[in-house]
TrEMBL record:
Designated name of the protein: Sugar ABC transporter permease
The family this protein is said to belong to: Belongs to the binding-protein-dependent transport system permease family.
Subcellular location: Cell membrane
Main location per the UniProt record: membrane
Gene3D superfamilies in alphabetical order: MetI-like
Protein's UniProt keywords contain Transmembrane helix: yes
Organism expressing this protein natively: Microbacterium hominis
UniProt KW Transport keyword: yes
GO terms of biological process kind: transmembrane transport
Amino acid sequence: MKTSAVEVWSGRLLLIVVMALTIIPFISLFVTALHAPGTYPAGLSWPDEPHWDNFALAFQSADMLKMLGSSMLIELGVVPVSLLVATLAGFALGHLKVPFSRTLFVVFVLGLTLPIEGIIVPIYYQIRSYGLLNTQWAIVLPLIGLFMPFAVMWMRAHFVNMPHELTEAARTDGATTWQLFWRIHVPLSGPAISSLAILLFLWTWNQFLLAIVLVDDPTKRTMAGALGAFQGQWGTDIPLLCAGSILILLPTLIVFLVFQRQFVAALLQGAVKG
């Protein structure tokens, strides 16, 4: 069916509007960060003398080097463990015949509906009973559990679409379940695993609520959680606050731009197979 010119141009116009709504806030944040510290910029006015040193000042004032190290430790604790457990569970639920698989599926689906705001108080008391408050573990352990429902469902959706002919051929050749998983299905699951890793990285990096509730020391929080302390110190200095926000957003933007092809490939994988 041929697409009319009206549909083509309306689609392009809608895309331009969406792009503008997405980009304009970042442009405003960047322009504001270049104004003189202590001023109150209005709108998207470009400063007469851009203060590029605001970024260095925000980096030093917030002690972002320690925050960056803390965020990377938390990422290393959350992302690999979540990927391993989710891939194993997704393979079992999506490709193997395990007992009570339907019941487990319902449990994970219910976990997707659980808001973090509703369980933050029980998490606080549980972490306190473990003696882990004000440590990176106070963020790592809850995040692994909170990410599991989505991560398992993501990997299950991938393994459900894997052809069973591969499994039958491997079984005929004498492959064990572990060999079937590690040597056949994992290499074919690269797009799904890499895209899930991107999502987990972004969500962990931007985690704010757990960081400010469970950790008092800003240098032991995630970068997004440390922004709360930076805001409390420089809340009246709008340019420095914007500069700090850009520095915190920059790593996530770089990660998404670098791995966007893998992410899109995983999203389209099911549609291509269908």
